[in-house]
Each structure stands twice: as structure tokens, then as C-alpha cells.
Amino acid sequence: MKRHVLIVDDDPSLCSVLSADLAREGYRTTATQAPEAALTQACTGEDDVDAVLADVNTGSLPGTELCARVVASGRGVPVVLMTAFATLEIVVAAIRAGADDFVTKPLDSEALKATLGRVIDARMLRREIARARQAAEEPGFEGMVGGSRAMRSVYEMIERVARSDVTVLITGESGTGKELVAHAVHRRSARADGRFVAINCAAMPETLLESELFGHVKGAFTDARSARAGLFVKASGGTLFLDEIGEMPPSLQAKLLRALQERTVRPVGGDQEVPFDTRVVAATNRDLEADVAARRFREDLYYRINVVRVPVPPLRERGSDVLLIAQHVLRRCQPGRQRVTGFTETALGELLHRRWPGNVRELQNCVERAVTLAQFDHVRRVDLSEQMPTRAHLGIPMDLESLGGFVTMRELERRYAALVLRATGGNKSAAAGVFGCDRRTLGRKLGDPEDDDDNAAA
């Protein structure tokens, strides 16, 4: 949704110019010469206003008074005041009224856009922090942290599938917490008093994996000095979690399919079928449908394990859950002591704007490292900055050929900005850090007026 700026000025021509200029930058604008009407609009929830841009001299209601009333409404709408005379008296009055910033006329278009972008970003950050604090007071769900819409859908799905004994397939990128979901399905089921047994199908060779799953008889192979039950039998009455099932060798896929169909297993080297009563939950970070099409995964096994699918969202789609998880990790990595008690707002903003390709696991490592290196009682942005990509190790080409030869300085800057963005994996916050500018300025260099947020999918 486009950011909404309410313009208040008694000069209709200036309102028109500002509206057109901001519209080109992707803003939605409303302009008025009536400060009382602007006050009503900014202080009610009928049409959410992201920022108010008001002239100090607005006739019947001075801009400073308008600002003070908007601030007093408690809605947190930032106010930027405009003035043709930036005297000390006016500056003091603007500060006392609670203005977030002020700009002088004649207006510098780039400076105005940067100011509006900054105050709106700050408001959005405050909102996310408030949501995270509210969610932090609510109990977690089976050890999982997060109250975003995406995670609430996961919780609801867990509640529904836990009531039956159907096979569940948990999908999601690496590091999203698929095993936590499997544990939750087990604990919410009628098998909660039974064992939860987990095995990573990619962590051991085929022969050992077969023995682990199905068991073996004495003398089945060199080191088989005694018979041993497999995990299917050991987990009877409980749940068997097959992690990274997409990595299972094809020959074992056929044996797994038979076990799931017959509810029995044949130990390695044995000739007797052993029954089991185990619920199977599988997980993968692979696209199994593509693997089936490429004949890397058996189609019949795919349909057998994919009775109910529980997709786990990546961290970039979970909004302010990032802040909740970061605070949870902070508390957990320094038990019994509170040397570091929280994060600064700029650090929280940095955490929110990163894309986290490694998901929760990457965030956990990032926070643990930052807490270890923090010099003060709050983690600052600088404590996180060493983990952000920099120009020195991004591998950005600097020769003329890679940049397209001799072009205008403006085009050269645009092409270099595109290279930096590509090298940072599309992370505009990281790319802007390399440039030493804010994200909206980077968007202008790229010729992208919309400047999509890094977490637009969240």
C-alpha cells in the first residue's frame, strides 16, 4: 500500500506541486487548505495518514498548534513543518509542539523526500516494535515464537492435523523451524505420551540409514553382533520424524513406501515382518514435486507422505516476528544475567530490513554474536554491521567493461547501483549501506520510484 501524506498549506498552487512531486515518488497524497479538516483526518482512523506535511502559517490554526494536537491524539502520526523563515523562535516552537522535523521554503525536493521517508520509516518501526512487545506478552505455541498471520496459520494447521494419525509433510526453507513444528504435532496429538524419535535422512550413508530405520538381525553385516530394533519399532506408540526426506536414496524410498503401506518392517538380514504402530511426520526443504517430475523421488511415496502438508513460512514473510525471536534469543543466550537487556531502535530497524536467507537459524547466530560483542547494555546497529555485506567482500566488478563502457555519470551510477543490489542478493538495506545512503535514495539511483520494501512479502 502506498504511503499517505497529508499536505496542509494555504497556497493551492504549492499543494498541487507537492502532490504531483510526491506522487511521482510513489506516495498517495491528500492536500487541503483547511487545517481543521486536516486535524480531523489525521486524528481519526477512517483514512490512515502516514505523515502530515504542514506549513507553520496555516491561517485559522497555526501549524505548530496543528502539530501539537496531532501528537496529543496518540496515533503516532509524524508531522513535518514547513517554514519560509527558520528562525530560532520557530524552531523552538516546532520542537515544543512535537514536530518530527521541519523543512525550509523554497523546498528542496530531494531533501523533502528524504525527510518524509525517514519519519515514515521511523513510525513503521515504532509500530512493529509495539506489535512485537504486545505479542511478547502472549504465551508461545509449543516452544515456537511468533504471532504473525503466517505463523498463526501454521498453529491452526498443527491443531487440526494433530487430532488424527495421518502422515504429515512439513515443507519450508532451511532454518525455518520444521522440527519444532514436528514436535508440536506430536505434543498436541493423542501420542504425546509416546516417544518422539527423529532422524536426518541426509546425515548417514544408505546402508546405515536402512539399519537405523528398519533394524537388523544378528550377523546381518560385519558389526551386527546382536539384533537391533529399528526406529519404526522403537517409536511405536509415538512419532517418527523423517527430516530431509527428499535426500533419501531411491532404493530406500521403495522400502519406506512398503513400510508405510503395510505398517510392518523387515529388519536388514531378516525374513520376518515386524509390525509397528508409529505416526510418521516428514520434512523437506526441497521441491518434491519437481523431484518427482525429474524422477529423483518416487511419485507413489510422495503421495503417501503428503497426506497433509504444513508449509512453514520463511522469516522474511513473518514481519515483526523477527523482533520477537531476536529478543527471545537474547534472553536465552545469557541465562541468569542481564548484561545486555535489549536492542536500540536502529538495531531493530536493521533486523527488520534484512531478508534472512538462512531464516531463524541465521537470525539466532546473528543475535548471539552481537550480544557477545556488544559493549553496552543494548545491542546497537554497529554490533550487527560486521555481519552485513560490505563493498570489500561483495565481489563487485569495477572495470569499465563490466559497467557497460563509457556512459553518462548518472547512467554509470545507476548501473553500479544495480550491481551492488545484485551482489547483496536484492537486499536494499545492505546495498544502501554500501552506498552510504538511505534505501529511498538508492531506489532513485536505480530508477525505481516505488522502492519496494525488503519485506514486502511479509
Return the structural class: alpha/beta
Overall strand count: 16
- Rg, Cα atoms, Å: 29 Å
Shape, per Cα inertia axes? elongated
Mean pLDDT: 83
**Quick one: biggest sheet?**
5 strands, parallel
If helices are DSSP runs of H or I spanning 4 or more residues, what is the number of helices? 19
What share of the residues lie within helices? 40-55%
Strand content: 5-15%
Low-pLDDT runs of 5+ residues are 388-404, 450-458
Layout: helices, strands, pairs:
Layout: E1 4-8, H1 12-24, E2 28-32, H2 35-43, E3 51-55, H3 63-72, E4 79-83, H4 88-97, E5 101-104, H5 109-136, H6 149-161, E6 168-171, H7 178-187, E7 196-200, H8 206-214, E8 215-216, E9 228-229, H9 231-234, E10 239-243, H10 250-262, E11 264-265, E12 274-275, E13 279-284, H11 288-293, H12 299-305, E14 308-311, H13 321-332, E15 342-343, H14 345-353, H15 359-373, E16 378-379, H16 381-385, H17 409-423, H18 428-435, H19 439-445
Parallel strand pairs: 1-2, 1-3, 3-4, 4-5, 6-13, 6-14, 7-10, 10-13, 15-16
Antiparallel strand pairs: 8-9, 11-12
Report on the structure:
The chain is α/β, with parallel strands linked by helices. It is built from 19 helices and 16 strands. The strands form five sheets. A five-stranded parallel sheet has the order 2-1-3-4-5, sandwiched between helices. It has a five-stranded parallel sheet with strand order 7-10-13-6-14. A two-stranded antiparallel sheet has the order 8-9. Helix 3 links the parallel strand 3 (51-55) and strand 4 (79-83). Helix 5 (109-136) crosses helix 14 (345-353) and helix 17 (409-423) crosses helix 18. The two termini are 13 Å apart. Residues 388-404 and 450-458 have low confidence and may be disordered.
